[in-house]
Amino acid sequence: MVNGFPVATDRLYHPATHMWVAISGGIARIGLDALGIETSGALAQLSVPAPGAEVTAGRPFGQLEAAKFVGPLVSPVSGTLVAVNEAVLADPGLAERDPYGAGWLAEVALAEPDGARPGLLAGREEITRWFAAAVDDYRARGVLAE
Amino acid sequence: MSARRQGGGGTGPGGTGAPRGAWRLLRDDGAGAAAGLALDEALLAGYARGEPDRPPTLRLYSYRSHCALIGRYQNLAAEVDLGECERTGTQVSRRPTGGGAIIMGAGQLGVAWAGRAPAGQRPREIIESLSAGVTAGLARLGIAASFRGKNDLEAGGRKIAGLGLYVDGAGGMLFHASVLAGLDVGFMLRVLRIPAAKLAGKAAAAVAGRVTTVTELTGAEHTAATIRDAIAAGFAEAFGAGLAPGEPSPAERDLAARLAAERYANPAWLHERSMSADGSGSAAIRTPAGLARVYLTTHGDLIKSALVVGDFNELPHALAELESALRWRRLDEATVTGAVARSGAAGALGVPGPALAAAILAAGRQAGERATAAPARSAGSCYFPEPARSAT
Predict the structure, then answer these.
(1) Has residue B176 been placed in a domain?
(2) How far is CA B264 from its chain centroid?
(3) Which of B12-16, B205-209, B334-338 has the lowest mean pLDDT?
(4) Chain A neighbors of B97, CB-CB under 8 A
(5) For chain A, which domains are there?
(6) For residues A144 and B14, what is the distance between their CA atoms, to the nearest angstrom?
(7) What is the CATH number of the domain that holds B333?
């Protein structure tokens, strides 16, 4: 927990979109971090394309539908979707309850498994520092529901 | 972001980074359901990444009387009585934004703000910031409105405007508000899935206790047309923006026509079904003044609406707070317990907090069971949930 919100430091993060990436053997599992979910509103629906779709880093690949907000899910990596988490599509609350575990969104076969990941944060210290600052900033701006 | 933060000079909402210059102001009336929504989305094309920077567009308009517009992820047949729509000539469509089902017509002002999605800002703060234009406009009409529960604008504890936000894949952003200049509650109860009879004729009174209008608060008859100038001035004041009357471009009109045909009037879009089922349930709670009943409507495990009904001459403020705090929140013990504690509703009812929370959770369980049993059943509107068919 960092400043009251959970964050897993064993993966990469795209700060602007609050997407996380966990890479293993050329496959990137991606999901939304707890802060991104909290500041969007209670999730009503998540939509992602079927496996086989091509996704591009920085481009929308699906849609997030919260209480009053509808917006794009932006992929943090490029490649081919090889799996989607049907459980979270059926129960978007799963992403709120377990954002870094059972609430993952999709898996992508990376176009460049060994390529650089520009714009993604890595490492416990860097992630913790960014996440703590983001919580403080959102709290100061009154964005958090607490 | 704060609407007043950037000062004068015509920048976008505080911190959006929208370029300086007068906002384009569009005004139109009598839009059809599909055409009205299609033009809103068509306006976004000019704000896509890669397009030249330009000031935002503010469209203040009304729909033909009447249109029923459901939220992005709602199930049409569950929210709207399609037979009644056909009988009354009410058009239907699905908004790109979230939220509940609404009735629009000459009595409701549609607000559409189109611009580029700001970097570094979260949906909650964007909705609150842009709603400041509506709040300032209502203030010009003598109405003190405020942002409530991170969902709606309220005046005197009752909803006066609904809000929603949509960001498209290309980076354009659409803020929607529906401002209640007036409201025909009886008509709304017929067209939206709100079976008034099941509250023994109390539905209209219950809606009136939770919703208000400019007409009611000012004592003067108002329509979208009569409040439009005030709302426009409110946006100009709140954001320090000049407003330049304009028209949609030919390209925007062409795109709107295509979007109307291909999306907003397309049966596939209208009848799209969510993966989460809608449900409704209720539970009774004994109070010193008699039995009260909690009604919930749900979408999956999300609370769409909450209603506490009892022998109140006037809805206690704490109960209105509780209903608002529960709306669009996850139905779980921690959320419900927290909302009950913060609202003071248990004290207003004269019951222990845990007992009220238990009743809400029981209503939620019933809603979940019913949703599983009959996923297409009626589920209520943004104003008022469907009561249970029988006592719990």
Answers:
(1) yes
(2) 18
(3) B12-16
(4) 68-70
(5) 12-140 (2.40.50.100)
(6) 18
(7) 3.30.390.50
* B12 in any annotated domain: no
Local confidence band at B196 (pLDDT 50, 70, 90 cut-offs): very low
What pLDDT, on a 0 to 100 scale, did the predictor assign at position B390? 33
Whole domain around residue B354: which residue ranges?
Answer: 278-373
Residue to substitute from B73, B102, B176, interface A, most A β-carbons within 10 A: B73
Q: How far apart are CA B248 and CA B185, in angstroms?
A: 33
Residue B37 sits at the chain A interface (C-beta within 8 Å): no
Q: Please tell me the predicted confidence (pLDDT) of residue B14.
A: 45
Q: How many domains does chain B have?
A: 2
Q: B300 contacts in A (CB within 8 Å)?
A: 44, 91-93
* Residues B299 and B158 both lie in one domain: no
Q: Locate the chain A residue with the closest alpha carbon to B123.
A: A40
Q: What is the pTM of this model?
A: 0.87
Q: Are B321 and B219 within one domain?
A: no
Residue B1: the pLDDT is 40
Asked, for residue B221, whether it belongs to a domain, the answer is: yes
One domain for residues B309 and B348 = yes
Interface probe with A: pick from B147, B152, B302, B329, most Cβ of A within 10 Å: B302
Residue A36: which residues within 8 A CB-CB, separation 6 or more?
A: A17, A18, A19
The CA distance from B4 to A16, in Å, is: 24
Q: For the segment B321-377, what is each residue's pLDDT rounded down to a tens digit?
A: 899 889 888 899 999 999 999 999 999 999 999 999 999 999 999 988 877 654 433
B266 and B282: one domain?
no
Tell me: do B157 and B300 sit in the same domain. no
Question: Is B77 at the interface with chain A, CB within 8 A?
Answer: no
Mean pLDDT on A121-127: 96
- What percent of chain B is predicted at pLDDT more than 90? 60
What ipTM score was computed for the predicted complex, to two decimals?
Answer: 0.92
Contact map slice: B 216-255 vs A, CB within 8 A:
none
Handedness of CA B353, B359, B364, B365 (dihedral sign): positive
**Of residues B142 and B303, which shows the higher confidence score?**
B142
- Determine the 3-state secondary structure of B255 from DSSP: helix
State whether B137 and B207 are in the same domain. Answer: yes
Residue B385 in this model has a pLDDT that exceeds 90: no
B286 in the same domain as B249: no
Q: Which residue of A has its CA nearest to B329?
A: A42
Phi-psi region of B253 (alpha: psi -120 to 50; beta: other; left: phi over 0): alpha
Token match 């004290």: residue? Answer: B347
pLDDT at B17 over 70: no
Closest partner residue to B275 (CB to CB) among A45, A69, A96 is: A45
* Phi, psi for B133 (deg, rounded to 5): -65, -40
Residues of B in contact with A75 (CB under 8 A): none
